[in-house]
Give the backbone structure.
Amino acid sequence: MYSEKVMEHFRNPHNMGEIPDADGVGTVGNPVCGDLMTIYIKVKDNRLEDIKFKTFGCGAAIATSSIITELAKGKTLEEAMKITRGDVADNLGGLPPIKMHCSNLAADGLHAAIQDYLKKREAAQKK
Amino acid sequence: MMRRVYMDHAAGMPVDPRVMEAMTPYFTQKYGNPSSLHSWGNEARKTLEDARAKIVALVGAKKPEEVFFTSGGTESNNLAIKGVAYRNKDKGNHIVTTAIEHMSVINSCKSLMKEGFNVTNVPVDKYGVVDIQSLENAITDKTILVSVIYANNEIGTIQPIKQIGEIVHRKGALLHVDAVAAADQVPINVENENIDLMSISSNDMYGPRGAGALYVKTGTRIQPIIHGGGQERGLRSGTENIPAIVGMGKAAEIAKTEMKPEGERLARLRDRLIKGMVESIPSSFLNGHPNQRLPNNANVRFSYIEGESLILSLDMLGVACSSGSACTSKTLEPSHVLLAIGLKHEEAHGSLLFTLGKQNTEEDVDYVVKALPDIVKRLRAISPLTPKELLL
């Protein structure tokens, strides 16, 4: 059902874990639907210096979380915001059609984490 | 070589070699049609009736005329529900069923609802046992049929069918039982257990796919849903699938003879598997009834993780099983059966279903029990839902 690339990331997910002093955190999905993903980012000089994830979900959910950390790490915030669900699927050698909608949450999670960071930064600047 | 352990017999099981052997001549040598008048036809007719007699013996029917061959469990359930509903429209338009039926029962009822029938779903308790009082209350003077699954295919809970049958008959309705998952696992006697119609399937008892049967008690009003040449005494047209029917007959014969020792063996393996998993993995729980369950069924849920990733992980170690997770279904909804016993969505997602079979051994069980704790631990480490103390 899954590509070898998906299984590789499922078997050995990259950047799994939490960043306790993260600059931005994004949580997407809902355990009721079977997928919940949290992305943690560390930002330095407008670049994603570090990124980690934690995911409850199926093989696709875990693999997409892993690949997005690879795709986003070292990118500028603007570049990272441009990573799409399609990019995630393409870099995994494709996803089964039924998984494209339900489990392909990683890009949303990354964007949510960046928005969280930008909001926090804005709040800090106002002070 | 990696050990391979197949524990997904509810999804598919091998054909018993003795069944295969019995079937083989009927593809290329004994190909007569039971409707033909010549000797080929006579031989096929005798073969068909021999197979029927074995089904009669398995279910405890009184006469061969009470057993009708179909293409499988789904067709048997469709025929029982729609055939009784259409034929008894003059008596009423109400059907009672339960919250834990197979999709072929659920969707047959849904299809009837579009034609003006009303359907009441009776709830089950946390073990999956039908709430008898609700069932009794649901039956009205418009109720023509009550359909109850003998033992659920996902959680294995066995229903008090005899008692249900007494209530149904007292209230003047007919009882249909879906015994597809149960027929080769536990002894069933349609006469003693007040059953009017009962569905069984060949490929759930080590027979080939493509054959099933519906028991219809003499005097039960039912009409066909498939029309044609009038085979099976007019109730199920279509040239009889003799090789598959022969296989089903042989499978039923073997099931009847070997049910007791094999059932006891499987129940021991089942209990060893359940105990092994629940005792070695924190926050894991049995789904279904602790002892009123099919001997081959172990359904366990693991909090904070999701079933498909469990299945993929077990598959990497050569173990095959199923899940109640939405991710393993076509509908993206978690199992309606697990929701009906009161599980939350996320609990249903994290459930694994092991269905044991003839070739499973104690070593297989121990292999799974040994492999699973590390898999659960790894997935819990990835999950944001896992409480910190479980990760230590």
